[in-house]
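Hey team,

Sharing the Interleukin-1 receptor-associated kinase 4 run so nobody has to redo it. Sequence (448 residues) first:
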Amino acid sequence: MSKTISPSTYVRNLSPALFRQLSDFLDPQEGWKKLAVDIRKSSGEPRYTQLHIRRFEGVIQKGKSPTHELLYDWGTTNCTVQDLTDLLLRNEFLTVASLFPYEPSPSSSCRTLPMDEMQKPQTSETSGKTERGNPVLQSTEPEQNDEETTGFGIFSFNFLKRITRDFDDRPLSNGGSKIGEGGFGMVFQGHLKNQYVAVKKLTNIADASLQDLKDQFEQEIKTMAQAYVRNPPENGVWTHALMICHHENIVKLLGFSNDGDNYCLVYTYMSNGSLLDRLACLNNTAPLSWNRRCNIMLGTAQGIKYLHENNHVHRDIKSANILLDDNFTPQISDFGLARATGHLARTMMTERIVGTTAYMAPEALRGEVTIKSDIFSFGVLEMKEEIEEEEKTLEEYVDKNMKDVELHFVEKMYSISSRCLNQTKNKRPNIDTVLHDLENCTSILSGF
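Structure output:
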């Protein structure tokens, strides 16, 4: 049986398997250097100089891990798992930080943080308690993290294989587990604690490397990490949890798996699938009414507002990424391309052009990352360009399957869409204006 670890465990006493996992995460792209320059002496001065860092770099030529050498050296100072986890969190290594138990400070207050201030999730794969009642983890073979979890947690890849019937890639309608797929992987239905979940298995695509896959995985978790809270004390014991974008119109992330090169994300299951599939009446589902479509647009806009208020650009708003629950409440999904802007008005540049071309704003095709690109993509959901190209009138274009549509409401919605689709980004409305206009447009509609 693996030895349990707690926040007070000395780093020098961690198992070789844990050191290997740390090295696998931190050796690529020299992540260990960020830790080295952040480690301090008790006096507050940096522990490691550039000379030390060059010495750690030198072990690479000998086939050794600089991360292992750094932590071995730092471990001689009696640093603990708590110190290591604090260091990883400060430097935004969320996934690797989740390998360890973490003890929040009792003096900290319960507060909501911006989404990009990440904290480490609590896994329910705990197997004991310290003398103070704080949870400890088993270290560290993936097969042992195999239990079900009651909250946000870490799952083993083999456990997710079991609950998805070995990632059966036949569609649900054919007796399989597959419920969808996208550019970076497939989504499968799984069964966890008497409820269905959606398991997104990330896979390589033709022009993407393993590092691209890891970046996609890390970005999704990072974007959805919203708040670190302290629960009320029970029997004098403080616990903690990661709040994952608790918003009605953002899909809920339940946990993840990152065994070796396998990356999976576990979400709440959305029984009515994607807006794309429902608009197409896939599997002979009933057409969406005009009233319901308006409510879906309103909810989607509210989700975008939440992201923009937290200075995040989704970058891939499209009907396939708008999922619908039992009540057809829309929830935005797929945050692997999202980016933090730092400020709402800020435009960032990226060398890699990502997104779905049909929904992309002109500036996004040039590599600009701005919240106004999400506004453009939202406008595309009304398909204004197709109407113009086919020289149809609005009345001719309206889906004949809708029996409750009134043309003057369609005209108002089309007007909102047209402003969102302005070729000049600064002339597009912000999400608050879009929401205000949508609310006015739908205010007299009630029910479905």
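Confidence is low (pLDDT under 50) at residues 105-151, 226-244.

Ping me if you want the raw files.
A.
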